[in-house]
Automatic annotation (TrEMBL):
CDD domains: BPL
EC number(s) on file: 6.3.4.15
A Pfam cross-reference name: BPL_C
Record key words, sorted: ATP-binding, Ligase, Nucleotide-binding
PROSITE patterns according to UniProt: BPL_LPL_CATALYTIC (PS51733)
InterPro entries documented for this protein: aa-tRNA-synth_II/BPL/LPL, Biotin_CoA_COase_ligase, BPL_C, BPL_LPL_catalytic, Transcriptional_repressor_C
Protein name, as recorded: Biotin--[acetyl-CoA-carboxylase] ligase
A GO cellular-component term linked to this record: cytoplasm
Enzyme class: ligase
Keyword Chaperone on entry: no
Any GO molecular function: biotin--[biotin carboxyl-carrier protein] ligase activity
Length: 259
């Protein structure tokens, strides 16, 4: 179980994680964070669960939630146009990649919300927005496979998943990792609020392993293949199709294809 006093003692943040709600088990940390936000909880509050019974990724796909992982959600109330919310995926991606890289690991981001090490998924990001004519709040959920053994992963993802422990060869402190993640998140989020989006975008591109790859994108009703040649300022993936035409993809499930 996470030691909250230890976690709080190493935080260097001003507001992210200064109020933490800790649960032994939740259906979903994002759902709990949304409930708290609707009740007026302030920006920066964090929900952490030892395990999730119905953790999910994009498109309501189930997310494997081991009790040896880290599952948290952050309440944000950015005073920005709702069209910019997609950039918060990049904020979270950069923060998580920094935290993973601080252990000497080669963290990568697969467009748009997967965290990889050696092409295996080590974590994921899920952002959800509540609107009422504008953006009332945004929830950023981050799940990281920390001290998960390979034999803990379900058979269907064993070949594509990894953990920090598997890559390092030793366990890591969950409190220390959470602290590094939240510290980095506040730093990148402050840059977002200061409209330093070009700097965030530049760093995100450096971590992104999708650009320059042949990819398959599954969207609602169609599957597209092409070369990922870039990402625009709002996070849309730019594909070059086999006929040479450029196409912008706002959302979809991305698979890296080997040449």
């Amino acid at each position: 179980m996470i030691d909250l006093k230890l976690l709080e003692s190493c935080l260097k943040t001003r507001y992210i994680g200064r109020r933490i709600y800790h649960f032994d088990s939740l259906p979903s940390t994002n759902d709990e964070a949304k409930s708290l936000a609707r009740g007026g909880e302030e920006e920066g509050a964090v929900v952490i669960a030892e395990r999730q019974t119905h953790g999910r990724g994009r498109y309501d796909h189930l997310w494997f939630s081991s009790p040896h992982g880290l599952h948290l959600s952050i309440i944000l109330r950015p005073q920005v146009n709702i069209t910019r919310v997609t950039r918060l995926v990049m904020v979270a991606g950069v923060a998580a990649a920094r935290a993973i890289s601080s252990y000497g690991l080669d963290a990568r981001i697969k467009w748009s919300n997967d965290l990889l090490i050696h092409e295996r998924k080590v974590g994921g990001i899920l952002t959800e927005v509540d609107t009422d004519g504008g953006m009332e709040f945004c929830i950023v959920g981050i799940g990281i496979n920390l001290n998960v053994r390979h034999d803990e992963f379900p058979d269907e993802i064993k070949d594509i998943a990894t953990s920090i422990m598997e890559e390092l060869g030793e366990e890591v402190s969950r409190e220390e990792f959470a602290c590094r993640l939240l510290n980095e998140f506040e730093d990148v989020y402050d840059s977002f609020k200061a409209e330093a989006c070009d700097e965030i975008m530049s760093e995100w591109r450096r971590y992104c392993s999708t650009i320059g790859r042949l990819v398959r994108i599954r969207t609602v009703g169609e599957t597209i293949e092409g070369e990922a040649v870039g990402v625009d300022r709002e996070g849309a993936l730019i594909l070059e199709l086999p006929n040479g035409r450029l196409m912008k993809v706002v959302s979809g499930e991305c698979t890296h294809l080997w040449r």
